[in-house]
Amino acid sequence: MKIEKEYRLNEAFLSYRRVAIHEPKPTDALKTPSAVFNIANELIGQEGREVFLVYFLDAANHIKAFTKAFTGTIDQAVIYPREVLRYCILADCSRIIVCHNHPSGVARPSEHDIALTKKLQEACGAVDIEMLDHIVIGDGQYYSFREHGLI
Q1: Is the pLDDT of residue 116 over 70?
Q2: Rounded to two decimals, what is the model's pTM?
Q3: Count of other CB atoms within 10 angstroms of residue 28
Q4: How would residue 13 be classed by pLDDT, with cut points 50, 70 and 90?
Q5: Which CATH class is domain 25-144?
Q6: How far apart, in Å, are the Cα atoms of 63 and each of 57, 94, 110, 150?
Q7: Quick one: which of 132, 131, 58 has its CA closest to 94?
């Protein structure tokens, strides 16, 4: 019992430490795709599995909260738009930016990524939440849907 308790405390401490080191401050404003990349790359750039992040922003693009919403395999993550909306409502945000990594290192969106972005954009629009960008991260570089005119 004592070992199990120590293990849980150790896990909690390590988890807190990882978040404390990389967690963006609420005053951070995500105004450019490169600013998003700089923060998100620290969190998921080196992950061996696909991780899907959602940044919840206020009207001035300050980070209210963020979550690693979904974790997948080495080449895909299943994303549920309704779950993203649930997080948005809980965070009481007016805008979001989503990011995910490609463990392959290729920062180019797949057809699935493009279709998902359209679905997310439509779902967010239905509840008056603006989806500002979708950033794909791979091997120290990024692809911004907004910069490429896809949002």
Answers
A1: yes
A2: 0.78
A3: 16
A4: very low
A5: alpha beta
A6: 5, 11, 27, 23
A7: 58
